Amino acid sequence: MAKIDAFFKLMHDEGASDLHLVTGQQPAIRIRGEIERIKFDVLTNDNLKAMLYEITPEHKIKQFEETGDVDFAYEIPGLARYRANFFEQQFGCAAVFREIPSKIVTAQELGLPPVISKLASLPRGLVLVTGPTGSGKSTTLAAIINEANFTRKDHIITIEDPVEFVHQSQSCIVNHREVGRHTKSFTAALRGALREDPDIILVGELRDLETISLAVEAASTGHLVFGTLHTTSAAKTVDRIIEVFPSSEQMQIRSTLADGLRAIVAQVLFKRIDKKGRCAALEILIANSAVRNLIRESKTFQIPSMMQTGKKFGMQLLDDAIMELLTKGWISGDEAYLKANDKTRFRQFLKSPPTDFTEA
User: Which of 101, 131, 147 is the last residue of a domain?
Assistant: First the structure.
């Protein structure tokens, strides 16, 4: 048993999402969104490096020594998997570990709207799950892939950096590929995937023009493609994809994206006040013919209005989802205000002045 495993056990027992190990500081864990210190000695650079290197593959140690940054996955059988990131900072090395549960939670267990499960049955197209870092995008995608794994008879390829949730093949064949370990890059893996007879492709992150272009192309050639972006709303996600391309290509990509897009799910996590845990508010855009026309005609600013009238298709605005959680008594008015798009709608629920005074 590695020395660091004791921290992972504590983290798991406390229900923490992240572990922070920083030279010159006490270890800390993030519980329900907030950092809490662990009663432990202040970490020295040498002691922390020795602890980290005990669980790090040789080639990842070499990469970290050369570049000052590295990502990889670590697993404790029977406990959980962890997404690790090491980085150099002013006073020495540091590391952050995100816990990835070994059990994949279903969409129903997560309390997600029924339309989320239906995304797993789409025959083709592009589905994007977006939100800030730590908003539960990977968990939602894992639930969708899990649904497909049990209900379809297809080939699923995931391309991640690193591999997070591990799906055991059920009715589907599932192949996990890790960037830097099984393939050189997202783009190389995507190109290869098109020759590997996939039905469903999961791209861990759409980071750049080439990856986005290949994902849109794959979605428009008969594959079901899932991906993530760090955007905060459905309309901004469409704009972000289009703006990545040179201006001379933007009209063409609008048309291609309009044809291939099937859904965008933008989510935000909240700390629950009624019990321990967190819950997600989801904005859901289903790309029906009206939405596709707005994308083609450069009228993405009208997408929120279309979503308000598209509830029968399963669409919902983020602020409506937040209001529902607030009405149920699950979240605080202050946090609802902080994370809402239309602040004025939630001002009446504030118990204290806005956290972000620039929004006042």
Answer: 101
